[in-house]
Amino acid sequence: MAKSKKPSKATNFFSDVHEVARLIPRGRATSYGAIAAYLGAKMSARMVGWAMNAAHGDHSIPAHRVVNRAGLLTGKHHFATPAEMQRRLEQEGISVKKDKIQNFEKIFWDPAKELI
DNA sequence: GGTCTGACCGGCG
DNA sequence: ACGCCGGCCAGAC
Q: Other CB atoms closer than 10 Å to residue A22's CB: what's the count?
C-alpha cells in the first residue's frame, strides 16, 4: 500500500507519458489523447503535449512519434527544426504529406491495446 | 500565492 | 459542411 511517494517533484503523469512515448515501436505513431486515455486522463490530452515539452533534451523519447488524433504533426514546431519531425517519421517508414501522417490509423499504436 | 498558458479533444450552432 | 467554445492538469512568471 503505501507506495513510497516519490520525493521528487516530478509528477507520475510526466514520467508516465515519457515512459509510454519511449515504448512506441519504430515505424508507429500514437496520439496525445491515446496516451492520456491510457493514463486515465483522456480529457487532459493537453497535458500530454505539455509533458512532451519536458521531454526536450531527452532523445530517448521519440516525441516525433506522437501526433494529434488527426495525424497532423502539430508539435513539429517544437523540434529543433520543423522538418526534423517529418524527416524522422519518413526515416522510420511513415509517409508524411503536408505535415500529416498517411495511413495514420494503420500505423496507429494504441498503448492501451498494445500495452496491457 | 494567484494567474495564464499550453504540442489537445469533443461537442454544439 | 464548417467554425467556435469549453474543459482538463500541471508548470512557469
A: 13
- Tell the residue number behind the cell numbers 493537453, with chain if given: A46
In this structure, are residues A20 and A28 in contact, taking their beta carbons and an 8 Å threshold?
no
A89, containing H or E segment:
helix A82-91
Instruction: Tell me the backbone φ, ψ of residue A70, rounded to 5 degrees.
Output: -85, -10
Q: What average pLDDT does this structure show over A39-57? A: 86
Query: From CA A31, how far away is CA A58, in angstroms rounded?
Result: 19
- Local confidence band at A10 (pLDDT 50, 70, 90 cut-offs): low
Q: Compute the distance between CA of residue A97 and CA of residue A12 in angstroms, rounded to an integer.
A: 35
Please tell me the distance from the alpha carbon of residue A80 to that of residue A83, in angstroms, as a whole number: 9
pLDDT band at A34 (very low <50, low <70, confident <90, very high): very high
CA-to-C1' span, A43 to C7 (A): 8
Residue of least CA–C1' distance to C8: A44
